Amino acid sequence: MVIVYHLMPKTVSARIDGSTPTKEELDFPGVEDGIRGMAFIDNVVASAQSDIKWTEYVINS
Amino acid sequence: MNRKLRMGMVGGGKDAFIGAIHRFAANMDGLIEVAAGALSINPEIAVDSGKSLFLPADRTYLTYDEMITKEAALPADKRIDFVTIVTPNFAHFAPAMMALDHGFHVVIEKPIAFTLDEALQLKKKVEETGLILCLTHTYSGYPMVKQAKAMVADGVLGKIRKVWVEYPQGWLSKLSEREGNAQAAWRTDPKKSGKAGCMGDIGTHAAHLSEYITGAKITHLCADLNALVPGRMLDDDGGVLLKFDNGAAGVLMASQVAAGEENALKIRIYGEKGGLEWAQHEPNTLLVKWLDAPTQILRAGGNYGDRLSSYAKNSFCKN
User: pTM to 2 decimals?
Assistant: First the structure.
């Protein structure tokens, strides 16, 4: 958690200062990771309810 | 930057667990101050929590709506820079959308939302506004996790074949949600947590960590979910077989009824030449195992010449 509040504020500060954050500072989870997390939940629940062995990991809205 | 960033919190009042962890973490590097809060849906707790954080009364708000509207109306040198949302899953989306609409960056607890559809709407909003959204898959931020990722990317282990990720906790071993445990109550309630319990709460962390370190994406899975404590409405345990797009096979285990365990997240990744092992209980250590040489113990901040990535060399996890 500490790290989230280290990298993310550096990126926000860079935005405020008009500077460019480093690649390292930008390496925190964002909305794409959130979408994969929600898809993981959907796919795991679908798989658990299915009798088919493998469920394809899909991102369906 | 010649000042601290100003954070406004949604949720995380005196009765909440994760809010205090966020404040502790935010305070650690001295880059952030809590400047405003809508800390509880209970007005008394919201006010009390504001007092205990020494928030000024006029920036202790009773609703997130009030906080975002009034903060947005303050001059730029006063208003918050970003909003941190630490409410239960069902109450992530609305404040996040509103904060982005009012020009605030957002930190949001995982899982990002209640449904995938909400997550997709948030993506659209982030793209429209150009603002920053940070999701607290916090384990991907540990220095030695980043070291592991760098070593896999550099091909140090050769082609990755196998991923084991396990996340046992024991705190839901009893039906605590019926015994007044507020944390347990919302996490095991499908109306507040979403369609999964344990897999949403900690399975998502394990899946994220496996994809983060390997740089590979899960393509197929085979899941077994269980509600092992009688009377529980959502899964409190599960095992998932994984296939990744680089050909690797994986096993993901998550449980909140592993009685006696605290937060025993651990990941092991094996390639053709060797393996890596990282555990949250010993976060500054990365074990590197070799097919034809003794195991190495790498430590965050270690003075090993160029063996550590710059982040792992210069960072040390303090909690």
Answer: 0.94
What residues make up the domain containing A21? 4-48
Q: What is the rounded CA–CA span in Å between residue A23 and residue A20? A: 9
CB-closest option in A5, A16, A24 to B25: A5
Q: Is residue A55 part of a domain?
A: no
Q: What interface predicted TM-score (ipTM) does this complex get?
A: 0.95
* CB-based contact, B82 to chain A, within 8 Å: yes
Domains of chain B, earliest start first:
5-136 (3.40.50.720), 139-314 (3.30.360.10)
Q: Which of A15, A33, A35 to probe the B interface (max B CBs under 10 A)? A: A33
> What does the pLDDT look like over B29-71, one tens digit per residue?
788 999 999 999 999 999 999 999 999 999 999 999 999 999 9
For A31-52, write each residue's pLDDT tens digit. Answer: 999 999 999 999 999 999 999 9
| Residues of chain B neighbouring A25 (CB-CB closer than 8 A) | none
Q: Which tokens is B102 given? A: 């009012």
Distance CA A25, CA B171 (A): 34
Give the dihedral sign, CA A48/A54/A58/A60. Answer: negative
